[in-house]
């Protein structure tokens, strides 16, 4: 074991003790965060407008601060961009993280002097937790690749603007700089396909031990590596590869494809980073849920997903959540986001400690007939089906077909198979049955002859990447929504002739 690995194990032990303090006192930790946020927020423009000086507890807060999405906070963001200070948070942000919104266009999410360290600390804790759990630290001795956005930043009125992953690249500690790949010049390439080709060239002969990125990027990178090297698996190329770190989308639908590409079921840490804050990470390798980070500058609120579009939905804090129920996640952060709807739904799997899975997007669902199917359900149905009828799925999305010619409506699944099932009809029947078991509303619509069974439309190889490229969203943090409530994406595939 090298010196870096030995030091990493020491730090892993220290980190574990520090994390245990808030994990063992979750509600106290959240209350402390709440009080800190209000104490600072009351001196801001937002705090004065919402009478923060009268807030003594969470019930007061709910009366003063409504739930908002980005559009409803945009006037405050624009004021900051024009140079105002003390608007949402004290002083001015260090950065704006630039993200692509599905309805708001480009969004500018503030990152403050107080919030920035938690983006770094959380990522570091995820790795240190792995070292503590598995007793493996050798990966710190080899090369580590982070497939991310460009670290080049713009500037507006003194505030740096860029992609979150590009901003974080400026905080890689010096002791890891020599191990880190790709090169700065390659990271700055904007065109994603050109960038991945260059990354392949730079890393092909290196001793890669850790690889990080969102699953669709990793699949593209691995396929290009195998094609260029002439090898059959990634493990043949990188025999010392020990760990993958993923985020952005659920890893499980990609797992079988990854195992095939890599050549084994590699250790994976799933994370939940967002421009708004680092929300959770997988703290147990043998489990797929994520530890909710409760002492990292965010006070969380939750709204039952089925009530979200009601006029007065239930709004609760951590102490009142239940397992197995989908909640819309609401954030209050030390960067000045207040009552902020991040757009995700989460489901608690454990309350001691508090662990979650990301179950979907509140705006990404299929409910053209009142079934309200969410991402967690379609992903679970696909996983169950793949166990019975082996195949490999590269990517998929679901859209309603409301007015088919001379037949009942149905859900259309656009699926890109890396390896098709032997019998697609049996596969579709099993998939439909699994959906009916997971969603009672969908089952009722099938039983009542309102809907017919789902249909699968197979997508050509690399079709999803071609679609995203046509939208100007290939690479970065962009991904195709798992579900739509309209035909826009499905029609896009048809127009580009991406269906078989």
Structural notes for this entry:
There is one protein chain. This protein has 500 residues and is α/β, with parallel strands linked by helices. The protein has 2 domains: 1-362, Rossmann fold (3-Layer(aba) Sandwich), CATH 3.40.50; 375-495, GMP Synthetase, Chain A, domain 3 (2-Layer Sandwich). The protein contains 18 helices and 18 strands. It has helices at 3-23, 26-41, 45-49, 58-64, 70-81, 116-134, 164-168, 174-177, 184-187, 192-203, 215-229, 234-237, 255-262, 375-388, 424-438, 440-447, 463-470, 488-495; strands at 95-101, 105-111, 143-146, 154-156, 159-162, 180-181, 208-212, 243-246, 267-274, 277-281, 290-292, 298-304, 326-333, 340-351, 354-361, 392-401, 410-419, 455-458. The strands form 3 sheets. It has an 11-stranded mixed β-sheet. It starts with a helix and ends in a 5-residue tail after the last helix.
What tags apply to this protein structure?
single chain, 500 residues, alpha/beta, Rossmann fold, GMP Synthetase, Chain A, domain 3, 11-stranded mixed β-sheet, 4-stranded mixed β-sheet, 22% strand
Describe the SSE topology.
Layout: H1 3-23, H2 26-41, H3 45-49, H4 58-64, H5 70-81, E1 95-101, E2 105-111, H6 116-134, E3 143-146, E4 154-156, E5 159-162, H7 164-168, H8 174-177, E6 180-181, H9 184-187, H10 192-203, E7 208-212, H11 215-229, H12 234-237, E8 243-246, H13 255-262, E9 267-274, E10 277-281, E11 290-292, E12 298-304, E13 326-333, E14 340-351, E15 354-361, H14 375-388, E16 392-401, E17 410-419, H15 424-438, H16 440-447, E18 455-458, H17 463-470, H18 488-495
Parallel strand pairs: 1-5, 3-6, 3-7, 7-8, 8-9, 17-18
Antiparallel strand pairs: 1-2, 4-5, 9-10, 10-11, 11-15, 12-13, 13-14, 14-15, 16-17
């Amino acid at each position: 074991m090298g010196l870096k690995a030995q030091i990493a194990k020491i730090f892993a032990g220290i980190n574990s003790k520090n994390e245990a303090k808030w994990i063992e006192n979750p509600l106290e930790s959240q209350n402390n965060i709440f009080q800190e946020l209000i104490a600072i927020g009351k001196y801001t423009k937002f705090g004065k407008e919402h009478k923060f000086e009268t807030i003594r507890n969470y019930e007061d807060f709910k009366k003063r601060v409504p739930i908002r999405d980005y559009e409803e906070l945009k006037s405050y963001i624009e004021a900051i961009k024009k140079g105002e200070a003390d608007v949402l948070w004290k002083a001015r942000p260090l950065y704006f993280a630039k993200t692509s919104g599905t309805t708001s266009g480009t969004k500018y999410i503030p990152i403050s002097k107080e919030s920035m360290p938690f983006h770094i600390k959380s990522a570091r804790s995820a790795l240190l937790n792995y070292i503590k759990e598995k007793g493996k630290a050798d990966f710190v001795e080899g090369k580590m690749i982070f497939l991310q956005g460009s670290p080049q930043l713009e500037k507006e009125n003194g505030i740096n603007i860029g992609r979150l992953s590009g901003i974080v690249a400026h905080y890689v500690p010096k002791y890891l700089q020599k191990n880190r790949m790709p090169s700065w010049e390659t990271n700055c390439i904007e065109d994603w396909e050109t960038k991945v080709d260059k990354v392949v060239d730079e890393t092909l002969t290196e001793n890669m031990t850790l690889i990080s990125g969102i699953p669709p990027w990793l699949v593209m990178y691995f396929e290009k590596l195998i094609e260029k090297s002439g090898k059959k698996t990634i493990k043949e190329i990188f025999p010392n590869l020990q760990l993958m770190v993923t985020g952005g989308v659920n890893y499980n639908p990609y797992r079988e494809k990854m195992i095939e590409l890599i050549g084994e079921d590699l250790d994976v840490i799933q994370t939940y980073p967002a421009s708004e804050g680092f929300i959770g990470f997988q703290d147990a390798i043998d489990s797929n849920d994520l530890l909710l980070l409760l002492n990292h500058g965010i006070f969380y609120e939750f709204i039952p997903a089925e009530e979200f579009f009601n006029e007065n939905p239930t709004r609760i804090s951590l102490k009142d959540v239940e397992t197995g129920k989908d909640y819309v996640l609401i954030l209050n952060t030390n960067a000045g986001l207040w009552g902020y709807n991040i757009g995700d739904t989460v489901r608690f799997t454990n309350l001691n400690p508090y662990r979650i899975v990301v179950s979907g997007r509140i705006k990404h669902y299929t409910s053209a007939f009142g079934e309200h199917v969410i991402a967690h359900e379609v992903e679970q149905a696909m996983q169950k089906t793949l166990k019975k009828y082996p195949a490999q799925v590269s990517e998929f999305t679901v859209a309603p077909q409301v007015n088919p010619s001379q037949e009942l409506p149905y859900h259309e699944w656009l699926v890109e198979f890396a390896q098709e099932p032997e019998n697609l009809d049996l596969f579709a029947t099993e998939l439909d049955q699994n959906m009916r078991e997971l969603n009672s509303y969908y089952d009722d619509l099938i039983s009542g002859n309102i809907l017919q069974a789902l249909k699968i439309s197979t997508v050509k190889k690399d079709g999803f990447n071609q679609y995203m490229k046509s939208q100007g969203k290939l690479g970065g943090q962009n991904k195709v929504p798992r579900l739509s409530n309209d035909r826009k994406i499905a029609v896009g595939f048809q127009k580009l002739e991406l269906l078989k």
